[in-house]
Amino acid sequence: MSEKRIEKELAQLQAEGSSSYSAGPPGAHLYQWQGWIMGPEESPYSGGLFWITIQFPVDYPFQHPKVSFTTKIYHPNINGNGYIFLDILIDKWGPHLTVSNVLQSISSLLKEPQPDSPYIHKISGLLDIAHIYKTDRPRYEATAREWTHKYAMQDFGGDEA
């Protein structure tokens, strides 16, 4: 079942043709995808191209895919290893959700971080970023823009992820 579902979702993503995100298998292995998310306009990530990996479990869609950033990003809900602290990728997943839903949710998370998320309450690095986000927004946005320029704008002279 999971293979047919993954193929269906791949076709759906290709049909959508979003300019904000895309994903698919880079080779023949259907259970491992690579994708990207454009930094949303009116966010400190604007203009950035953020690469992600998606690994599907064999019992997909009954278990969530593992999605992580490979491009470094300064964000209160994404740790240094690229792990995304997002409810639908932790304990709010359901088989009705799709990769397209996940990519849309991640894009929304970039535009509207969740500094009070219960998923980050024990992760000191993320708590520090969340605190800066809540108490010194200009500093947060400047650092996020700096990281976006450095790591997510390779065509503009930034370093690769």
Automatic annotation (TrEMBL):
GO molecular function, one term: ATP binding
Record carries keyword ATP-binding: yes
Domain UBC core residues, every copy: 1-153
Catalytic reaction list: S-ubiquitinyl-[E1 ubiquitin-activating enzyme]-L-cysteine + [E2 ubiquitin-conjugating enzyme]-L-cysteine = [E1 ubiquitin-activating enzyme]-L-cysteine + S-ubiquitinyl-[E2 ubiquitin-conjugating enzyme]-L-cysteine
Protein name as it appears in the record: Ubiquitin-conjugating enzyme/RWD-like protein
Keywords: ATP-binding, Nucleotide-binding, Transferase, Ubl conjugation pathway
InterPro entries: UBC, UBQ-conjugating_enzyme/RWD
Keyword set includes Transferase: yes
Pfam families: UQ_con
